[in-house]
Amino acid sequence: MNASGGELVLGQPIPRVRHALLPGETRLDFAHRLAQSVAFAFSVDPARMAEQPDFDFSADAFVLPEAVVSRSKLCGRMTLSRDDALIAATGADQLFVHVVEDGALDVQPTRSGRRLRAGDILVLDLAHAATVTQADYAAIMMVMTRGALPEPLRHLDLHCAEIRGDHPLARVIASTLACLCEDAPDMTQAQGSLVLRAAIEMLGMALTDVRRARLAPPALKAMAEALVDDHLSEPALSPAWIAARLDVSRATLYRAFAPYGGVTRFINDRRLENAWILLTSDDHLPLGEIAARCGYVGRTRLFQAFNERFAMPPDAVLSASEDDRAMLREHAARAMMDVWDRRTGRAVAG
After folding, report:
1. Fewest 10 Å CB contacts: which of 182, 203, 296, 314?
2. How far is residue 275's CA from residue 106's CA, in Å, rounded to a whole number?
3. Cβ(18)–Cβ(40) under 8 Å?
């Protein structure tokens, strides 16, 4: 920026802002400073971030005429939330583009029901509420004006639109923005703006493809199943939890899962199937870890659910001889086939 009017001068270097823990700074002070840096768009809980013993965050942000582009790395967990009160207070009306380089993130509401992973791109409209939870990730984020997009897309609903990593342009968009972040210190604003415009044009084309695909949206059941499979370790996983993330009523969700015997039964089925897979794997995991991975609060709950479904305790599977395991597998397979019959509609749940 120039020293007089604060205007971007395209022949000058690209302004950069760095976020990192300063020497002597406490983790809590750093978390408060980080919260302030995103307060224009999101609320975060500094105390919750600082209480994580391994929490660390670093980012470099580059200011260009069309957008602010930042590349960040997080160790730990961070939740960004934007509700109606914050929307009214800040008035921010930009688009927030999130390119996942490593790790994973969850978004609520979700259009697909799936957790975003490396290579995926998420678009949030800051005129609408959303919650994004990130854990141990690296990402490129871009805050851009709506007018930077190609004209046909500027007035469309792009909130929570996802470009999957297997889209032909996803990797090119990600690599273009990564090169911009890496080379920005040596670029003028005019050069950086040229690279950014190319990335935005490709983003617009990919979003056009996503909009076309939405003409045939995924079934509610498929979206809910993806949420369950991605979050089996969450003890809070429940019909209300799923309905909130898919932005549907619980009644609508219950109707979709009637062939399964209800949402809760489906969740329990998937947890038990996963427990069986872990018990019979070659990893030889302790029962406490298996319980945690399947969302059971302690071994006792795992024992109760497993014994009720398979008529045997989980430790019987671990200690069984190879001959006995063959019989146990057949017994479990019959129980799992009952689940699949209900999922495919070939049997009505009792």
Report:
1. 182
2. 23
3. no
CA 188 to chain centre: 34
CB-CB neighbours of 319 under 10 Å: 9
> Please, is 208 exposed, middle or buried when counting C-beta atoms within 10 Å of its C-beta (0-12, 13-18, 19+)?
middle
**Is the Cα torsion angle 325, 331, 336, 341 positive or negative in sign?**
positive
Q: Could you tell me if 268 and 242 are in contact, meaning their C-beta atoms sit under 8 angstroms apart?
A: no
* 331-to-271, 335, 349 alpha-carbon distances in Å: 17, 7, 19
At 279-289, the pLDDT tens digits run 877 677 888 89
Low-confidence residues in the chain, pLDDT < 50: 1-8, 215-216, 344-350
222 vs 214: CA distance, rounded Å? 14
Are the C-beta atoms of 155 and 167 separated by less than 8 Å?
no
Find the angle CA(143)-CA(156)-CA(121) to the nearest 5 degrees: 45
Which of 178, 144, 190, 176 shows the shortest CA–CA distance to 13?
190
Please state, in angstroms and rounded to a whole number, the distance separating the CA atoms of residues 330 and 332. Answer: 5
Distance, CA of 302 to CA of 237 (rounded, Å): 15
Could you say which DSSP state residue 29 is in?
Answer: H
Specify whether the CB–CB gap between 124 and 130 falls below 8 A.
Answer: yes
Give the CA distances from residue 73 to residues 76, 79, 170, 227, in Å, rounded to whole numbers and listed in that order: 10, 14, 20, 25
Cα distance between residue 114 and residue 247, in whole Å: 14
Max intra-chain CA distance, the chain? 82
Residue from 116, 80, 86 nearest 101 by CA = 116
Structure tokens at 300: 């006792």
Contact 154, 208 (CB under 8 A): no
Cβ atoms of 310 and 334 closer than 8 Å: no
Q: State pLDDT tens for residues 40-59.
A: 889 999 999 999 999 999 99
**Which tokens go with 170?**
């996803």
Spatial neighbors of 315 by CB under 8 A, at least 6 apart, are 287
